[in-house]
Amino acid sequence: MFPSAEIAIRLTAFAAIFAALALWEILAPRRPLIAGRRARWPSNLVVLVVDSLLVRLLIPTAAVGAALFAAGHGYGLFNLAGLRLSVASLLGFLALDLIIYLQHVVFHKVPVLWRLHRMHHADLDIDATTGVRFHPFEILISLVIKIAVVIALGIPAVAVVLFEVVLNATSMFNHANAAMPLWLDRVLRLIVVTPDMHRVHHSILRQETDSNFGFNLPWWDRLFGTYRPQPAAGHDGMTIGLPIFRDPHELRLDRLLTQPFRNDRPSEDRVH
Ligand SMILES: [Zn+2]
Ligand SMILES: [Zn+2]
């Protein structure tokens, strides 16, 4: 698979899923928005463009290039073990999802990494665009980790592309401000992280911020004891965001990009 095909697949999937979720949010919102779309969408979406361009500029072939490289040279555990494509793809997908979960936990625990990641948490509302609002440095670190795992395990390129498309889709889905019947949330939560599950992670309360780290599969949180079913104040009563960066000016693109390097009451960036 060529990088141009990967880009086309990922762009098409992104546009279709984003449009469907945006429509759902407008027709059946889960919560009223505090800061609204006009103040947030342009900067959240431009951050996505900055992230994508930076990745293509610095690591043009991205993780799929690493997969093709590993396959071509016979590198990685799955290649050495001679696993069938289907088995290697399934295991590779699960391994990447576990790594993303673990990486997310580490980004919360290590102060310098939390500085990068807190930009994602500082959004005053949570909707599909929050799902693509990550600091470019966090995206680059994440990609380097992904490339290392892809080469070490020899994950097939098809599994890497599938994982990237699914992760992008589930990240927008589980941030969506979309209402659904509670029974449907309960059923979906068995196989995928739902909006109600991930919203707990965007609570201003630290013990809630430090729970539900999964983006895709909900099992890791249950396995490692970081699962929290609902926010204490309820989905309508909870406050989204962090105690710092609550000024609406912080939703501007330039403010988003500089948040990791500013010391706005650093000791109070989470409510204990
Ligand atoms: Zn987080
Ligand atoms: Zn999130």
Structure notes:
The chain has 272 residues and is an all-alpha fold. It contains 14 helices and no strands. The chain has helices spanning 3-27, 41-58, 62-73, 77-81, 85-109, 111-121, 136-153, 157-175, 182-188, 195-199, 206-209, 219-223, 234-237, 253-258. Helix 3 runs parallel beside helix 7, helix 3 packs antiparallel against helix 8 (157-175) and helix 5 crosses helix 6 (111-121). The radius of gyration is 18 Å and the shape is globular. The N and C termini lie far apart (48 Å). The model has no long low-confidence stretch (mean pLDDT 94). The chain binds zinc ion (ZN) (2 copies). Residues 104, 108, 117, 121, 201 line the site of one zinc ion. One zinc ion binds next to helix 5 and helix 6.
> In whole angstroms, how far apart are the ends?
48 Å
Radius of gyration: 18 Å
Mean pLDDT: 94
Quote the beta fraction.
Answer: under 5%
Provide the succession of SSEs: HHHHHHHHHHHHHH
Number-wise, the strands total: 0
Shape: globular
The low-confidence parts are: none
The multimeric state of the shown protein is single chain
Task: Describe this structure in a few short sentences.
By secondary structure, the chain is mainly alpha-helical. 60% of the residues lie in helices and 0% in strands.
What does the secondary structure layout of this molecule look like, with pairings?
Layout: H1 3-27, H2 41-58, H3 62-73, H4 77-81, H5 85-109, H6 111-121, H7 136-153, H8 157-175, H9 182-188, H10 195-199, H11 206-209, H12 219-223, H13 234-237, H14 253-258
Helix pairs in contact: 1-8, 2-7, 3-7, 3-8, 5-6, 5-7, 5-8
This protein binds zinc ion (2 copies).
The site of one zinc ion has 5 residues, from helix 5 and helix 6.
